[in-house]
Amino acid sequence: MKFKPGLPEGNVNVSHNSPGKEFLLLFAGITAILLSAYLILGLFIDVAVNYISPELEAKVFKTMSYGSGEHQIENSDKQQAMQILVNKLQQCTDLPYPLQVNLVESETPNAFAFPGGKIVVFSSLLDSVQSENGLAFVLAHELSHFQNRDHLRGMGRSIVFTALMSAVTGAGSDLTRLVAPVANFSQAQYSQHRETMADEQALAIINCYYGHVGGATEFFETIAPLAGNKNHTSAVSHYFSSHPEAERRIANLKKLADEHNMPRNKTAPLNATLSANTAE
Amino acid sequence: MQLSNTEGIPGKEITAFYGVVSGSTVRAKHAGRDLMASLKNIFGGELKGYTELLSESRDEAIRRMTEQARQLGANAVVNVRFSTSSVAAGAAEIYVYGTAVTVE
Amino acid sequence: MDQLIIFALLLSLGYFFGRSAEKRHYASIQQREQDFINMPTTAGKYVLGENTTVTKSHLVTGSVVISVDYFKRILASLRSFFGGNVRSYETLVDRARREAVLRMKESCPDADQIINIRLETSSIYKGQGKQIGSVEVLAYGTAVYLAP
């Protein structure tokens, strides 16, 4: 028996193909799968939302409230004043159930539609608008969200999609990090679409209530410079944000007002209760 | 190519040897199979997808080892040993090695 | 957004550095395998060859821990979503095994043969989630010194 020294030529234990190509191919594949899953599930949510009655919604979300109790400004005069404004604006919509305004102490000027018929308004929003019309537009925007049931759609989509992602890729894995931009992008695009729709409806609501659309862009004009500075770092970040850029919303609203010949008359000032300094 | 996990091939004589040859492969099943397996973990029973995965990997590893032995000029591999490990989650890694020999 | 940039940076760092490290390692492995081409290894219990008179023998071991780069780890997780050969881990285990055997041989440069070789593989580091970043290989066998 003899020893015959030798080394195998080549290496049969590894595959000789380009990992870069494999990566691109697989990444394209997973992107396509996730996007189509998102589209299909989104359609299901849209159908399901139609079957949730406002009564059921109110019952489910009754116990949920935004944030912790101490930030909420209970029964303040401002909340009352806004409640009256919302009730008046609601006459211009076909929302059948009562909405409740919740004023919350916060530094960020913002407002949003919360499931269960609650409009949450952050206190510094009142400092960001100069007239009642400006405030009314923001409230009308939230009313439109309720009318379109966007609050349920958005919530449903994010729940279903998060569940899908963690079931498929495993929560917190590297794969989740890889596909997160895809998921964020599709969700942001959908959300921006709904926001634009709500803006357009809000314009119609305040046109119906005041007879003109003066002051509609007031809030966006206040926040545009603030947001502009923040987003300056990257040219693509607005593709991933849930709301369209403020400048674009202003332009869109102006264009729409011109198209429908909605006049922009003089705005009415905020009443004394609302314009009072927030610092008490 | 003859394979054996004994010191030699019964009834034949080793005339030359070439050293250790090996074959290995890492394979994974698609996410759907992983999901089914995790469901099966609740009820117990054979994880068919993973059994399949393991036998596919084993065949591939043996194929690679015999290819290496053929390149050296051997016609048999004796003392074949298998070892498995989990290099990645949901993926099976099989390593097979043995001594490449010529038998007559 | 920042996360995306960091992620892309890690991915390209892993791709380029991982590739060059792998290339260098393979070059070194091939060179050393050529150097040790006359020290046969067998998986059997008995000394093979014409001269089987053993004068001395002892246990030899060689071990190594090798990590995979970030790019390949991501590629592997993508691959395990679709199923199939996880090619990006193949070079990892291949390099680790050959390196372990070479280290074992280097620990006994005067031996004539190493018999009864066994290899053990384990993943010693489990990172975040279930992702495994590195592999440990231990090679062991009996080095035998033959009578001249």
Largest interface, chains and sizes = B-C, 36 and 38 residues
CATH architecture of chain B: 2-Layer Sandwich
Provide the structure class of chain B.
alpha+beta
Net shape of chain A? elongated
Strand content of chain B: 35-45%
| Average pLDDT metric of chain B | 87
Helices of chain B, by number, come to 2
Q: Which word captures the global form of chain B?
A: elongated
The run of helices and strands of chain A is EHHHEEEHHHHHHH
Q: How many domain modules of chain B?
A: 1
Helical amount among residues of chain B, as a percent range? Answer: 25-40%
Largest sheet of chain A: 3 strands, mixed
Beta percentage of chain A is 5-15%
Mean pLDDT of chain A: 78
Give a quick rundown of the structure:
The complex is a heterotrimer of chains A (280), B (104) and C (148). Chain A has 280 residues and is mainly α.
What does this structure look like?
- The complex is a heterotrimer of chains A (about 280), B (about 100) and C (about 150).
- By secondary structure, chain A is mostly helical.
- Chain A is about 60% helix and about 5% strand.
- Chain A has a domain at about 25-55 and about 130-275.
- Chain A contains 10 helices and 4 strands.
- In chain A, strands 2-4-3 form a 3-stranded mixed β-sheet, with helices on one face.
- Chain B has about 100 residues and is of the alpha+beta class.
- Chain B has one domain (about 1-105): Hypothetical protein apc22750. Chain B (Translation Initiation Factor IF3).
- Chain B is built from 2 helices and 4 strands, in the order E-E-H-H-E-E.
- Chain B has a 4-stranded mixed β-sheet.
- Chain C has about 150 residues and is α+β, with helices and mostly antiparallel strands.
- Chain C has a single domain (about 1-145), classed as Translation Initiation Factor IF3, CATH 3.30.110.70.
- Chain C has 3 helices and 4 strands.
- Chain C has helices spanning about 1-35, 70-80, 85-105, and strands at about 55-65, 85, 115-125, 130-145.
- Chain C has a 3-stranded antiparallel β-sheet with strand order 1-4-3.
- The longest helix of chain C has about 35 residues, at about 1-35.
- Classes of the chains: A mainly alpha (about 280), B alpha+beta (about 100), C alpha+beta (about 150).
- Chains A and B meet through strand 1 and helix 6 of A and strand 2 and helix 2 of B.
- Strand 1 of chain A pairs parallel with strand 2 (about 15-30) of chain B, so a sheet runs across the interface.
